[in-house]
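Support request, please re-run this one:
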Amino acid sequence: MTIDRENLLKSILDSLGRIDHIELADIPNIDLYMDQVTTFMETRLKSSTRNPEGDKILTKTMINNYAKNDLLPPPVRKKYSREHILLLIFIYYYKGILSISDIQTLLKPLTEKYFHASGPLDLGAIYEEVFSLENDEIADLQENIVRKFTLSQETFKNAPEEEQEVLQLFSFISMLSYDVYVKKLLIEKMIDSFKTATKKEDLAKNAREKSDHS
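Re-run finished. Output below.
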């Protein structure tokens, strides 16, 4: 097997550069039926899948399961709002690395406080704030990948020449995998802290409400 290493790295970096989130302004500000929701998500996120021709972004079954697991508020008269779509986008990005329980821990406080919120801070504002960090994050990822790729090319120098290519590619994949593994552990620990923080917030809120009514 012969791998064009320069083209491989360029392809990886180019694919990172093409990653883009759905802009808030592009999300319909009208309620949609389920078929319209799945079509919208497929159209906007299909290019990010491994196999665009076969992979499904969202199905009716998925949406129903998210609702059953309290990840998504029920639709109103079978229609889904812009806030529903925002939550589905968050779920789409989280589900590849987090359990349903962890996603529920993250989204439930946001749903309870900001779903159809009337103030300046609503789910749309939170979505824009979070994804505004994307460009800087992509640039950092590209630098990190170049560094890992360069390091991987220095491994297995004593292996037979015809075996080095595969072994060095294995090193590169392993380094990326370890990075994901460590970050997943950190995310899980932070979710535990997030759960504790939201419980404290709820207790403080209940205490204030009791004080106001006493």
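The CA atoms of residues 187 and 193 lie 10 Å apart. Helices lie at 5-18, 34-45, 60-68, 82-94, 100-114, 123-131, 134-152, 161-213.
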